[in-house]
Each structure stands twice: as structure tokens, then as C-alpha cells.
């Protein structure tokens, strides 16, 4: 398959798009999950951090604060430091969180460690600095202690103050009746023994697995403090997965659209050109862009249009020329027949019959020329290429021409028998014959014939020169057109029909070569040179 194949480009483009979209989706999920995980950590710590900072703020002296922090550190089994605020560098976002009485969470993924910075009410010069690893069961059981330590200052107003601090928690906290919790006997027994109970719930809802902490209240038999349910972090929730999938499909569709649109546009250009062709306008051409199959299609269309246009023009010119060329011999035959009817002299009648015979022969020659030209013009002729010793063919034409007693000197340049070319013998003979015949008609005394192979370009060539008047430069392209005559009266006197050089031009075309005419540097007249590949590949254009 060609490296420029539009389909290969589409398939490769689709694979690349899928890989890029998958990579984009993966990176997007990682970025979103990182942000979600950070927000989840902050949401878990904001409430309890507020309660801890409030506990520190209630202490009257520095020593009391230090003692309270030490007790909290032992309870949580976490190092809690009371640090100078000037020693902690905070970003703009972190500073704003501190001002809003929220915790700053800095997570070290490499060591699975989180560092919490907590502000203290009425003490902007100090922060609480807590180093937290993987949370354990003891730490979760200690959370109700800090909440109840906060509530102990508001006896009888627990519900009211729980609602007040609820805004700092992302999960519910409240005092509920133990009978509404659907606990088993073992859990109820632990509550009666003043132990905290941790409840795990697996759900099929969007929240998934949740955890709740139930702790008995002092001086209460039926009421308990319930923290939660707190949803566990879900790395790929349904909405996120659906959103990423839809976004990825959208990007993939955009990519496929970007691959298909250029091809659709190129096909539309070809289709529009065909619609124009249906109207009979053969002048429209399709722009060729790139090197793929669609560019090849545009090139083929343009070549087809050129060929059809050339055929139509050639057919029109042929019809006009044929009708013109046939009139003269037909008129002479008609005149001769009328003379035969009115003439009794036998010798004169015989003379008229000979003249009629010459006119009929001229008609046969003209018809043969027309048929040859039409065959070469209409399409690819049947060509049988073979190896030809070039000097033998040139010598054959020279001998045949001398036999016509033209009284002209024909000179064949020396050429080795080792020079072998590939060509259709019949048509190559016709080329040399037409060129030499044309030179004989217009030369004064001499015609030169030569040929060979250009070793640089590997192009074979034949060359015919004469010492006649030559061809003006402005007329050198026109002489290869069908029925073209530069000097109509002289051409008619010489017996030409203006098809010989047209036939030579078409043969050169089907040989994959060219025919050129210029001035002979040696004889001063016209020089015709046809070149074609020494090893011919049949032309299928």
C-alpha cells in the first residue's frame, strides 16, 4: 500500500486519535482524581480541625494550650506542634482557607503522608501543625472525644451547637436515639460499656461504602453522638466515568471529522467537475492536492478531460478537413466522367481514365492517412514493441526513397549495427518515412538522416535534416496539427494532405517520446528530431 494512501492515513490517524484520546482521558482522570482526592482530604479534616483549633483557643494560658495539645496528641497518636506562624509559608489559597477557619492539607504521595496546618481563633501568630499518616481505628474513635469536649461548654444546648458547627463538616454529625440506628446486640453492649462503635455500610448508591462513628454521651442512656455516614473516596464515580467517556468520544468524533472532511471536500471537487462535464464544458479542471488516491483521481480526471477535449477538437477538425480534401478529387472525377460521356476520341478518353485513376488513388491515399491518424488519435493503438537494429531501418527508408527517383541527395550518417532500440517497427518506419518524405518535398538538394542513443538519458532518437527554406519559429508547433499547411498552394502541388507530421506526433506520443523541429545547424533548413525511451514501456494514458 502506498505511503500516501488516504485510507492508510485515515486508519493510522484513527489509531493515533484513539491513543491520544485514551492518553488524554487517562491524564484527565488523574488530574481530576488528584483534585478530588485533595478536596476529599480537606473535607474530612475541616470539621475536626475546627473543633481542635477551638479547643486550643479556649485555653487561657500558653501552658494550658501546651497541655491541651499534648493530651490531644496522645489521644490521636499523632504529633501536634504549636508553631510560630512566621515559620510557615502559605500560598494565597492556603491563607484564604486559614482565614475561613478551614484546614490546609499538604499531601506527600511518595510517603503517603499528609501535613495539616490549622489556624487558631484569636491567635493569628501561631498555627497547629499536624503530621498524619494512614488513619487508623484509634484515631477515628478519638474524633467524638474532641466534639464532646467542644460541647461540654454548652450543657443542655448540645443540639443547637452541633448545628452551629455542622457548617464546618462535609458529613452529618448529630445526637440520635440509639434505637433508630439498627445496631446488633454486640454493638449495643459496647455502647453501654462506654466504647465507641464504628459502622461500615456497603451501598449500591452513588455514595458507595460509608463509615459512621457512634459514641455514647455522658449522662445519657438512650442518646448517642453519631458522626457520619462519611463516604469513602471513590476513584472513579459513575458521573466522572460517564463524563470522561462522553468527552473522549466527542474528541474522537472531532478527530475523525477532521480526517474525513478533507477527503469529502476533494471528492466534492471531482463530483462538481463531472457535473460541469455533463453540460458539455470540457475546460474545467480539478486542482491536484497532495499525493494520495484522491490526488491521483483528480489527475486521472484532468487527463481524461484533456483527452476527451482533444478528441472532440480533433474530430471536428478532421470532419472539416476531410470534407475539404475530398471535394477536389471528387470534383475532378466528376469532371472527367462528364468529359468521357461527351468525347469520342479513344486516346483522349484513355487519358481521362488515367487521370480519374490517379484521382481515385489520391482518394485511397487520403483515406489511408485519415484512418491511420484516427487510429492513433482515438486511443491507445495496438503496439508490438521489439528490438530493432536502428541503422537497418534507417537504411531501408533511404533505399525506398531513392527508388522514387526524386533527384535529391539522401545521406545516411554512419551508425553501428550494435545500436538496438525498442519500438513498434511498422510505426517507427512510418515516422522515418514521413519525415524523409516531408524533407524531400521542401529541400533544395540534400537530406541527412541520422539516429542513435543518448547514453546520458537513455533516449533513442532519429533526426532528419534538409537544406530547404526551413520553418519559421512561430509556425513550428502548428505544423504538427492535423491538415495544417504553412504554404497551401505549394503543399497541394507536392501532393501532401497535412497529416504526415500529425501522424508522426501521435506516434511519438504513444512511444512515450517527443518530436521537435528547429533549424539544421549543418544544412540550414528544417531539422526534425524524434526521441523516445530506448527501452519502451507501453503508454496507457
Could you characterize the architecture of this molecule?
Helix 1 packs antiparallel against helix 7 (238-278), helix 7 (238-278) runs parallel beside helix 8 (293-342) and helix 8 (293-342) packs antiparallel against helix 9. The model is unreliable at 488-495 (pLDDT under 50). The protein has 541 residues and is an alpha+beta fold. It is rod-shaped and about 160 Å long. The chain folds into 3 domains: 1-133, Beta-Lactamase (2-Layer Sandwich), CATH 3.30.450; 136-235, Beta-Lactamase (2-Layer Sandwich); 383-533, Heat Shock Protein 90. Helix content is 52%, strand content 17%. It has helices at 6-57, 62-76, 92-99, 137-151, 158-165, 185-192, 238-278, 293-342, 346-378, 390-402, 425-442, 488-494, 500-510, and strands at residues 80-84, 104-108, 113-119, 126-132, 173-177, 197-201, 210-216, 223-231, 386-389, 409-412, 420-423, 446-454, 459-466, 514-519, 526-533. The protein contains 13 helices and 15 strands. A 5-stranded mixed sheet has the order 10-12-13-15-14. The protein has a 4-stranded antiparallel sheet with strand order 1-4-3-2. A 4-stranded antiparallel sheet has the order 5-8-7-6, with helices on both faces.
Give the secondary structure arrangement, pairings included.
Layout: H1 6-57, H2 62-76, E1 80-84, H3 92-99, E2 104-108, E3 113-119, E4 126-132, H4 137-151, H5 158-165, E5 173-177, H6 185-192, E6 197-201, E7 210-216, E8 223-231, H7 238-278, H8 293-342, H9 346-378, E9 386-389, H10 390-402, E10 409-412, E11 420-423, H11 425-442, E12 446-454, E13 459-466, H12 488-494, H13 500-510, E14 514-519, E15 526-533
Parallel strand pairs: 10-12
Antiparallel strand pairs: 1-4, 2-3, 3-4, 5-8, 6-7, 7-8, 9-11, 12-13, 13-15, 14-15
Helix pairs in contact: 1-2, 1-4, 1-7, 7-8, 8-9, 9-13, 10-11, 11-13
